[in-house]
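Comment thread on ticket #2218

A.B. wrote:
> Attaching the input chain for the structure job we discussed in standup.
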Amino acid sequence: MSFGKKLGHTLLGLAPLPLSILIQFLLMIPVCGILFAYCFMFHPNLYGTELYDMLYELFESTAFNTAFLSICAAFIILYFGCWYFNAFEGFSLKPVRLKKIFSPLMILGIFVLALGLQYTVSYIVSFTAAINPDWLIAFEELEDSAGINDMTPLLVLYSVILGPINEELLFRGVSLSYLHKAMPFWLANIIQAALFGIFHMNMLQGIYAFVLGLFLGYLCKISNSIFPSMLLHIIYNFLACFSTDILFYGDNIILVCFRLILAVLLPIAGIYLCLSGEKKDLSAA
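C.D. wrote:
> Ran it. Output below, let me know if you need it in another format.
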């Protein structure tokens, strides 16, 4: 492949991150217009500081942020979904194709991997917070502002469905696919995982998102499809939203050590099961 084509593929692989930010910025313009219209229609007597305070309160509310992120995710899914499936993987939800992608061992491996990564990420967060406690404070403030501790149906929809699909199409879909055309997979995977970390705009979250991105990218490679990484991301986020009290019950030394073992062994077991499921499917074909 010529240098020009490699450069072009590299630039296309880097494009989803700034394009997703641009889409959010462009969508903010009509959304702001709608909010201003709402204030003037239903609160015509508000002027100056009172109007500013009301708008500020709306913009800072969890409901607004969740709704806006959901709208952005829907547009990004539509745009990048058409881009990815048209360029790299034909979109098909036929049972025959899904059965070929999702063997029983692959599904089991994805669930084990998602479970193990919960523990892996928890130790990454603990280690990172020990290095710089301010990162943990910023991360906790972000969680509070996002309403993670008070899940609404719309926030569940975004966190568990729209967000994962959106991010997989951006980074494991378009980014990784183009980068892999221009460079070895290991380097392409590192770059897309780094972009995934930057996308979160938070140091602590960015660090563990980078690690997650490496696993998600590798799963795309061994399955030759984006659907397994989507499923892994969805299960991971679901467990993070609803199962943390169960997964991290107790804080005595025995449980801490046991979770450390799980943080190492479960991801390895999950990858092994996914590889076994893929090899079994290939041999059956």
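A.B. wrote:
> Thanks. Noting for the ticket: The CA atoms of residues 223 and 278 lie 6 Å apart.
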